[in-house]
Design brief:
- This protein is of the alpha/beta class.
- The structure holds (3R)-3-hydroxy-L-norvaline.
């Protein structure tokens, strides 16, 4: 059995659907701190679980005979800056609970998401290597860097099989993002269809590593299905697909919606974006477990607009 904690989130929702399509609905228990949308909750086994409550998490794992846990609950970069203490508590202690339950032998495999937010202003910004200077300047980035250190420690010292990926900004049509700095790259498609224009909270030349959700979900499944001996890095793997600026994604949209216009009013999230890399070297993931991306900016834009065209109010 598989348990997804944080199943109602931007990644969790699509990850639940994908894992159920692979392993069968009844094999995948979705959980979140509160019930998500009724249709999703009714789509298969669902439990209300507070990721910060050790006993609740352990009880659900024992009740369902869970072997693999995907811990997707976290506060993302922008929200975490407004709530540092809670962000540290949720992002770190939820991880400790799952690592300790695995250390006790009650879980076989853990997936825990890291992020390019582990890199900071002193990190080389172009083609950022797997191993480099990492001085994250956001609460979220600090929690993800610390989490990576603990994942590697629990693997090396206690033999816990935990696997992790440094996700870039993720873009999906079926789920709205939750409080990230890269959320503009989702909002822009919705606004292009509903208003024909978009006011971007990052400046036009802000280049960031990005990935279509289809690719991110497939990478998550592939690293978890990889033979343990192939997962040589137990902190977290760099992962990449593309990088673009708000101006470049706007130009890609204009090819489908010629009258679309964009303007820029950078806010507090500009400082967060400026601390992150512009492009990522993910050669280790490609070498160790055969990672390769499918979607580039043009393919993502066509797929996003096609799916959203019928959906946007
Ligand atoms: C965020 N979407 O913006 C997340 C992600 C690299 C960005 O970690 O916080």
């Amino acid at each position: 059995k598989i348990l997804i904690i944080g199943a109602c989130g931007q990644i969790g929702t699509e990850l639940t659907a994908k894992l159920r399509s692979i392993y069968g609905t009844d094999e995948v228990v979705a959980s979140d701190v509160r019930k998500g949308d009724a249709e999703f909750v009714a789509s298969g086994p669902f439990e209300v679980v507070n990721a910060l409550d050790f006993n609740q998490v352990q009880a659900i794992i024992e009740k369902h005979g869970v072997e693999d846990v995907y811990l997707m609950a976290a506060l993302l970069s922008a929200t975490a800056e407004k709530n540092p203490a809670f962000a540290w508590d949720l992002n770190m202690n939820s991880l400790f609970h799952v690592l300790n339950i695995a250390k006790a032998g009650k879980i076989k495999k853990i997936f825990w998401p890291s992020s390019i937010a582990v890199f900071g202003p002193t990190t080389p910004k172009q083609n950022t290597p797997q191993y480099t200077v990492m001085e994250p300047s956001t609460v979220y980035g600090i929690s993800k860097q610390s989490g990576e250190r603990w994942c590697e420690y629990y693997h090396n010292i206690y033999g816990v099989d935990v696997r992790s990926i440094r996700y870039p900004g993720l873009i999906s049509w079926s789920t709205l993002p939750g409080g990230g700095t890269t959320d503009y790259a989702v909002d822009i498609y919705h606004k292009a269809l509903s208003d024909g224009k978009y006011t971007c909270f990052l400046s036009e030349e802000t280049r960031l590593p990005m990935m279509y959700m289809d690719d991110a979900i497939r990478a998550t499944v592939e690293i978890m299905q990889a033979p343990a001996e192939n997962v040589k890095i137990r902190s977290a793997y760099n992962l990449s697909a593309m990088d673009f600026t708000p101006e470049e994604i706007a130009d890609a949209i204009k090819k489908h919606i010629p009258d679309f216009t964009i303007d820029y009013t950078p806010d507090f999230r500009q400082k967060i974006a400026d601390s992150w890399p512009q492009s990522i070297d993910d050669s280790s993931a490609r070498q160790d477990w055969g990672w390769k991306h499918n979607f580039d900016l043009e393919a993502m834009t066509a797929d996003m607009l096609e799916h959203l065209a019928g959906k946007v109010d």
